[in-house]
Amino acid sequence: SHLDVPTCAYCLATITDADQTSGKVQMFLAEGCFHQFHTDCFRNYAKKQLLTKLPSGDFCECKCKKCGTVVQAEDLRETLGREWLQNIREQQTKMMMADVEGIVQCP
Fold this sequence. Notes:
Layout: H1 17-22, E1 25-27, E2 36-38, H2 39-50, H3 73-80, H4 82-99
Antiparallel strand pairs: 1-2
Helix pairs in contact: 3-4
């Protein structure tokens, strides 16, 4: 049936066998969420979320768009790589520093 066809949690396109064998697709192994996604789609989504500040001053969380399960930091690191996550954290720090007057980040 049509429901058995996996789709990307972010772009909603069908995940093909070719996608899966090429390594372009991953799945969250978090509790109860085994939704699949194209790594590139998730990377674009995660960057947007993690660089969006809430009124509270916190940054948005990453969630599975199909079930709302929050993606934990270790899943982000495993899915997108340590360097990628470190780069995002550096951008977050710069954004936070920009909001605080009188603080200068060390070069």
